[in-house]
Queue: 2 jobs
Job 1
Amino acid sequence: KAEEAERKAKEEELAKQNKKNAEKIAKINDLINQGNANLNTGKSGDALKKYEEAVKFLPIDQGEPSFSSSKYAEIASNLYDAAEREKNPETKSTLMNNAVKYAQKAIEKDPSNAKAHFILAMNAENNKDAVTAEKELELAVKNDPNNYLYYYYMLVFLFYTIFLEYFYFNIFFLLSQIVAINAIIIVNNKIIKGGIDNSVPSL
């Protein structure tokens, strides 16, 4: 009887915890949805406030830290998409900075969060930070190898990186050849005109 009573007590406590978690999750999702609605109507300030309210309910009692990480990443993704659509430079910067902030929080909770790494990669690419972009893309692919989008961006990134390296190398080689040819022409002209002086030819 004592064991039965203890088992029932544990089940009741678990049911209470599950109910409490369910209520928190519903509240978090509702606030995030309200934030998304504000973003879609151009109310970025109100959206940020709703997101801040939502994360105050984190963490929950079960499924952590992955649940909190997923919610931070979800918010980061919404903000990143909004930033990409935004025309006003100041608002765009605010949205992007917050997207990065939430992505970093997602990774703090769960370093294997692929979506958060992808957002950081795209932000780095926008900022012409090729080293960070490549590193974050690799982490996104590593942690979600079934996501074709991450592979696509990785291939595009590598293609343009290799293309630009090849382009700049060939431009440098071509310019050096032009300089060398001009120098030879100048020297030959001096020889034809009757000798070479000791001065350095001007190119």
Job 2
Amino acid sequence: LPPPLIHMHSYIHTSIRCGYRVTEAVLHARVPVIRFVTQVPVPVPVPLPVGSRSATATATATAKRFRTVQCDLTSYRRCAIMNSAMIRAYLDWDQSSGKLRQLLLLLKRFAKSRGIADASAGFLSSYAWVLLGLHVLLRLRYLPVLRVDLSLSQGFELDMRGVDVRRLGGTPVSVLLYQVLDYYDVEFDVARSTATLRGEGEV
């Protein structure tokens, strides 16, 4: 077991006062992982008093309501760090509509609700479900291809060929989810296809 993971495990247990709670520690797997949950504040709209002269109709309170966020912690996974940066780059690209974030969260929730998003039980991880969703959106030209370029500060460049930047934002999330699930149910050939972010996925 990598020593940093042991240290992190102890650190999380002693940081309960900060809002962390360990739910599972898989320390002897090929990729050791610690799962924990924490509480993050959610902005809550608060109506202003009647007759307020404020230019805005609502004020925002950030410390009244919290939501639970599930996190996985591991170490010695440089590839995972690069993959996380890639997903962040896609989310930043679609920041104006937010449809990509909504779809990926919905896809992960769909898989978890059916008990098929747990790698330790022989299923795909929630991260793998994110990659499956991105693959379909790339095939359908909703997203540009991110090409690795280490000479750039962010490490990626966008290939916008054949991509309409307005198309993703104009498509309902329910339609996007249906297209992802329909692709793997009907079109995906397990003998000849791969879910990749570098092409069409045909072997």
